[in-house]
Amino acid sequence: MEKYNHQEIEAKWHKKWDEEKLYQVGEDKSRPKYYVLDMFPYPSGAGLHVGHPKGYIATDILARMKMMGGFNVLHPMGWDAFGLPAENFALKNKVHPATQTAKNVVTYKSQLQKIGLTYDWDREINTTDPEYYKWTQWAFIKMWEKGLAYESTAPIIWCPSCQTGLAMEDLEEGRCERCGSEIERKPMKQWVIKITAYADRLLNDLDKLSGWEDSIKEMQKNWIGRSEGAEINFSLVCHPERSGAEPRDPLKVFTTRPDTLFGVTYVVLAPEHEIIKNEKLIIKNKKEVDQYINEAKKKSDLQRTDLNKDKTGVKLEGVMAVNPANGEEVPVFIADYVLPNYGTGAIMAVPAHDERDFEFARKYDLPIKTVVSSFCHPERSDSEVKDLKIADPSRGAQDDKGGGDVFCDDGVNINSDFLNGLKTAEAKKKMIEWLEKEGKGKMKVNYKLNDWVFSRQRYWGEPIPFVHCAKCGTVPVAEKDLPVRLPEVEHYEPTGTGESPLANISDWVNTTCPKCGGQAKRETNTMPQWAGSSWYYLRYIDPKNSQALVDKEKEKYWSPVDFYVGGAEHATRHLIYARFWHKFLFDIGAVNYDEPFTRLQHVGLIIGEDGRKMSKRWGNVINPDDIIEKFGADAMRVYEMFMGPFGASCAWSTNGLTGARKFLDHVWAISESIEQRTENSGKEISSLLHKTIKKISEDIAEFKLNTCVSAMMILTNEIEKKTHPVSRGSNYRYPPRLAELGTPPAEGNSHPSQEGISREDFAKFIQILAPFAPHLAEEIWQEKLGNQASVFKSVWPKFDPELIKDETINLIVQINGKLRATISVPAEISQNEAINSARENDNVKKWLVGKEISKIIFVPGKLLNIVLK
RNA sequence: GGUCCGGUGGCGGAACUGGCAGACGCGUUGGACUUAAAAUCCAAUUCCAUUAAACCGGAGUGAGGGUUCGAUUCCCUCCCGGACCACCA
Fold first, then answer.
1. Protein A658 CA to nucleic acid B27 C1', in Å?
2. A327, A366, A374: which is closest to A350 by C-alpha?
C-alpha cells in the first residue's frame, strides 16, 4: 500500500491547477455570481503565523463549494500595504518602505500559495500601487466637491511618538493604538471627512444587514452612539445682584434628560469652551480660571479621562447661568470632565439624577435637588402612578450632603412645576414641546461618532491631492493629473514640526495652481491607512481599469460582496469607514448598491499553545510553512476548521493537528483499496453518506465548519468499520458472560463486507471532502477514481431525501421524564403501538408495576414519556 | 460603569425548534503487533455507588430559584470569564 505523501501530492496539484488556470475568474455573466472576500492583510515583516490563514481557509472552503455549486466565484486577495509599521521599520533599518513592502508581499504570497487557496492572482491589488491609489485620491476629491471633506483647525489628537495626528478610532484606552504613547491634543490644520453627515444612514441601514452578526452591529451602534435629547438655551449673566440685566450671553447645553431641567443646580463648561474667551464676560477670578484652562491643556487625554481621578473644576466667580424654565440663577463652573467635542461642550448639571454631576456636587458642596422620584417606578401601572403624585423622595438624592443616593433611572417627576406627576418619557416630551413653543430650546440628536480626521503627518501613505494657492485657496488636482504620486525622498523621518516629511521636498511641494496657473504648494499630509482599505473590494472586480474606479456594469454583476470574513477588531473602524465610503460612492452614482457587504462573519483568533497571543516575544509563534511541510496543507486546513466554532478564539495544539492528519490518512487508506469496493453501498453507509452530504451542505452555509469535519470523520470511521469488520474488532475480547447472554459476533470474516461503500458513493464523499482537503481529494478524484477533470469542476452532490429516512428508530421511553429504556421500533410507529412496545420492555415493566398512568406524552419518531400518578 | 457574548469530562468542543448530555478529536489507561521503541490497529474513558464482570440505580451542563410531562436549551436573581466602548451629559 502506498503511503499518503502530502508533499508530493500538494506540489503536484499546485502546479497543475496553476497550469490549467483553474481559479481564473471569468466574466461569464450567465452564471450566478458569488463574491467571497477576506479582509486583506497588512504585509508585515514577520510573515504569517498559523492564525492568519484561518479565515482564508474558511472562505476558500466556501469558494470551492460554491464553484461546485455552479457559481461564478470571485475570491481575491491583495495587500493593504500603506501604514506606519512599514515606515517605522524603514526608519530603523534604512530601507525604503516600498522596498520592504514589496519584499514582505513576496513572503506572504508564497506562504499563502502553499495553503492551496483559490485566489485568482491576476486580480491581486496593492493599495500602494499608484494606479490603485489614484482612485482613493479621486474619491477624496469627489468628497471635497460634495462638501464632505474640509479643512479644520480644531484641536486634534496627536501622538507625540508617531508624530502624527490620529482619528478617535486610532486610540486604545486613550493611548495611541500603534505605539501605546499617551496622546495629546494639538490644534493643527487638518483634513477632515464629514462622516457624521452619514451617521443616521450608517445606523439605520444596519437593520438591512440581516446577514451581519448582531454583536458587530451592536458595536457599530455603540460607536455611532446616537442619543436623542434637547438643546436648551441657558444664558449667562455677569453680576448676580443685577440678575435679569443685560448683557446676557446665550449658552446652549445638550442633555438627554430635559425632564430634569427643574433640578439644575449649576452649569459646567468644558475648559475649551469658546464663551470663556468672550471679553464681555466678567470673571472675577479670571487668573484662577486661566490657570485651570492651561493645566487642562497640558494634560494628556489619558490623564484627563482617567476614571478613577477626582473631578476637578473652578467656579466662574461673578457669572451665573439662567435656567430658562424657571428663571433661576445657578453658578457656572469649568471642569475637564465635560468634553469639548461632544454636544455643545457645556452641560446643565442635575446632581440628583446624574452620577458625574452628583460626584462633582458633593465635592464642591453644591445643592442637590430631587426632581425625579424612584418611588413610582415605571414598572408600576399608570393608575398607581396617578395616586402617588408626590412621591417619596427618600430614595432620591438628599438635600443635605450627608446621605442620599443619586437616582439615574426613569421615574416620575416631582418639584417640577408643569411636569409633576409625569413619567420620564412623557416629561421629556412635554418639556421639549414647551421649550420649542417658548423658543428656549429644541429637540436635538447627538452622535458620539466624530468626523474623520484624515491627515497624517507621515510619509508612507496616499498623498492628499490638493494644492494651496495664495490666490485661489485650496484647489484639487485635476483628474487628468491623478494620481499624485508619492515622491522619492532621502529622509522619511517625521519632521517633528508637525509637518509631513514631504514638506521638505521643495521640488515636489512647489507646483502650479490647477485653477489660475500661478505658484502654489502641494498639500504635504498623507491619508490614513484606512483610506485604501475603504473601497478595495470594489477594485478586485475591475482591477486594471484606468478609466474608472470600477466599471459600473461589472460592479452591478459582482456586487455586493456576498460573504465577508475578517477580525472583529475591525467592527468599528474599517467596517464603518468602508460602509461610509461605499454609501458616498453610491450617492455620486459610482456603484449600484448602497451597502457593500451582505454577510459578515468574524474570525476567532488562534492563540499560542501556551494560551498567550502568538508573538515573537513569547516564542510561541508557529509558522504555517513548517506545519505544511511536516503534516501537509490539507491537514492544517482540516485542523484549523476543526478546532472549534469559527468565530471563537482557540489555542493551537499540535497534538490536535495530528488528529486531523490521521483522519486524512484513513481517507487515503480507504482510497487505496478502491478496487475492492462493492457494487452498491450497504444500506447504513448509504444512509449515513446522504445524511453527511446534507449536514455539510447546510453547515458550510452556516459556517459551522467544525461540525462538518466531525461529520466526515464519523463517516470515515463507519466506512472502515463496515469495510473491514475484521481489522476493526478482531482483537476485541467479547466478555464471556455477555457471550452467554447473546450471540457473539461471527469471527474470521476476512472478506470486505457487503455492507461497505461503493466506488460511486466514495466519489461523492471525496467531493464533499474536496473543499476542506483539496489536494488529497483531487489526487483521489483524478488518480484513483479516474476522473479526467478537476473535482472542483464536478457538481456538488445532492442528498437523496429517501435515503436519509430511517426505517427503524430508537424510541426514547421515559417514565416521569426520566430515561428508562430505548426501544428499536419502526419509524412511523403510532402512539398506541409505541405504548404496547414499551410495555414489553423489561425495564419499563419494572417501573410500571402497581402504578397508574396519568398522562402520555408522545413525540412521533422521538420519544414516549409515561407520566405516573 | 455601559453594551454584547459566553460558562458543558483531564483538554478543544458537540447537542435540530425544549426531547438519549458529553458526538468528533486530543490526552490517559489497557491490549495486539514488535527483540524493543515509534508508528499503526483494537478496547475503555463524566462522577458516585454496586459488581468477579455487567445489567440495574443515583448525581450531573457556573450557583440558586421558576415555567414544563420533560430544561445545557426558556424566564428571574447572583457569581465568574471574555470582547468592545468608556466622564458621550
1. 12
2. A366
Is A195:A451 a contact under the CB 8 Å cutoff?
Answer: yes
Residue linked to cell 459476533: A745
Complex ipTM value: 0.94
- Give the list of residues 6+ apart from residue A325 with CB closer than 8 angstroms, or none: A261, A262, A417, A431, A434, A440
Element (H, E) at A564: strand A563-567
Distance CA A296, CA A299 (A): 5
If we measure between CA atoms, which residue out of A624, A710, A717 comes closest to residue A52?
A: A624
What is the identity of the amino acid at A829? I
- Measure, in angstroms, how far nucleotide B19 C1' is from residue A712 CA: 26
Residues A334-360, buried b or exposed e (16+ Cβ, 10 A)?
bbbbbebebbbbbbbbbbbbbebbbeb
Q: How far apart are CA A421 and CA A411, in angstroms?
A: 9
Task: State the cell numbers at A389.
Answer: 403624585
Q: What is the pLDDT of residue A308?
A: 58
Nucleotide nearest to A714 (CA to C1'): B24
Chain segment A273-305, per-residue pLDDT in tens: 888 888 778 888 889 999 998 888 777 666 676
Q: Kindly report the backbone phi and psi dihedral angles of residue A352, in degrees, each rounded to the nearest multiple of 5, phi listed first.
A: -70, -25
Which residues in chain A show pLDDT less than 50?
Answer: 243-245, 376-403, 725-752
Predicted local distance difference test score (pLDDT) of residue A380 = 44
A560: preceding bond cis by omega (within 30 degrees): yes
Residues A667 and A714 sit within 8 Å (Cβ to Cβ): no
CA of A644, C1' of B6: distance in angstroms: 14
Distance, CA of A340 to CA of A563 (rounded, Å): 40
Quote the pLDDT of residue A807.
82
On whether the CB atoms of residues A127 and A81 are closer than 8 A, the answer is yes
Angle between helices A624-631 and A97-115 (to 10 degrees): 30
* pLDDT for position A351: 92
Q: Are A236 and A332 in contact (CB under 8 A)?
A: yes
Of A320, A165, A203, A163, whose CA–CA distance to A583 is shortest?
A: A203
Q: What 8-state DSSP symbol labels residue A29?
A: T
Question: Residue A502 to residues A282, A459, A464: CA-CA distances in angstroms?
Answer: 46, 7, 11
Nearest nucleotide relative to A173: CA against C1': B86
Amino acid, single-letter form, for residue A739: A
Q: Which residues contact A77 (CB under 8 A, 6 or more apart)?
A: A38, A40, A56, A112, A117, A119, A121, A124
Count the alpha carbons within 13 Å of A568 in the hemisphere toward its beta carbon: 16
Q: How far is the CA of A560 from the C1' of B6 (A)?
A: 32
Task: Using the structure, give the distance in angstroms from the CA atom of A738 to the C1' atom of B51, rounded to a whole number.
Answer: 14
Residue with cell 421511553: A813
pTM, rounded to two decimals:
0.90
Backbone φ and ψ for A192, nearest 5 degrees, come out as -135, 140
Give DSSP secondary structure letters for A307-359. TTSPP--EEEEEEEEE-TTT--EEEEEE-TTS-TTSTTSEEEE-GGG-HHHHH
Under 8 Å between Cβ of A860 and A827: no
3-state SS class at A98:
helix
Q: Which nucleotide is nearest to A218 (CA to C1')?
A: B4
First to last CA, chain A: 64
Residue A868, strand partner residues? A853
User: Using omega within 30 degrees of 0 as the cis cutoff, is the peptide bond preceding A736 cis?
Assistant: no
In this predicted model, what pLDDT tens digit does every residue of A507-559 receive, in sequence order? 999 999 999 999 999 999 999 989 999 999 999 999 999 999 999 999 999 99
**Residue nearest B25 (alpha carbon to C1'):** A659
- Specify the nucleotide whose C1' lies closest to residue A709 (CA): B24
DSSP string, A9-26: HHHHHHHHHHHTTTTPPP
